[in-house]
Design a protein that fits this description.
It contains 1 helix and 17 strands. It is mainly β. The protein has one domain: UDP N-Acetylglucosamine Acyltransferase, domain 1 (3 Solenoid), CATH 2.160.10.10. The strands form 3 sheets. Strands 2-5-8-11-14-16-17 form a 7-stranded mixed β-sheet, with no helix packed on it. It has a 5-stranded parallel β-sheet with strand order 1-4-7-10-13, with no helix packed on it. Strands 3-6-9-12-15 form a 5-stranded parallel β-sheet, with no helix packed on it. It is globular and about 60 Å long. The termini are far apart.
């Protein structure tokens, strides 16, 4: 089934969505110049997923903004329809981010501007801007740029926008 912009809360221009990608619910906000690889899955329930401009997601990325209640005595997990605020939390992927293949991003995460997430990582907490993260759970393995390089990078990007 072809993707339609109306399937999203917002869909910017120059958005590519690979074959087999699935979006559960309509709380997905896509910026401009976003590329989503094949077989990606976005699951958000009542929470929202924000993907800002110039973001690349590899194939088979899972973004899961919610979870089930597991603490209700007398109800099976699948029967518990009451959600707490901590069960569903927004996910934000800032501008100029690259997320490798087979990455899982869990509820409440913000991935900072200019960051890279290595293939196969599971992101469970905030990712600092201009950092490279890898592993299960994902941990910072290095800075992408020095502070001086970040300033120069930002200056060049800003100049190219005008």
């Amino acid at each position: 089934m072809p993707m339609k912009k109306s399937m999203f809360a917002k869909c910017g221009k120059d958005v590519y969505i690979g074959r087999g990608s699935k979006f559960v619910y309509e709380n997905v906000y896509l910026g401009n110049h976003v590329s989503i690889g094949a077989d990606a899955n976005f699951i958000c329930g009542i929470a929202r997923i924000f993907i800002h401009d110039y973001v690349v997601l590899g194939p088979r990325v899972f973004i899961i903004a919610g979870s089930h209640r597991i603490d209700v005595v007398g109800k099976r997990i699948v029967d518990s329809d009451e959600k707490l605020p901590e069960n569903d939390q927004d996910i934000i992927i800032d501008e100029d981010v690259w997320i490798g293949a087979n990455v899982i991003i869990l509820k409440g995460v913000r991935i900072g501007r200019g960051s890279v997430i290595a293939a196969g990582s599971i992101v469970t907490r905030e990712v600092l801007p201009y950092s490279v993260y890898a592993g299960v759970p994902a941990r910072k393995i290095k800075d992408r740029f020095t502070i001086k390089e970040i300033q120069e990078h930002e200056r060049i990007l800003e100049a190219n926008c005008n």
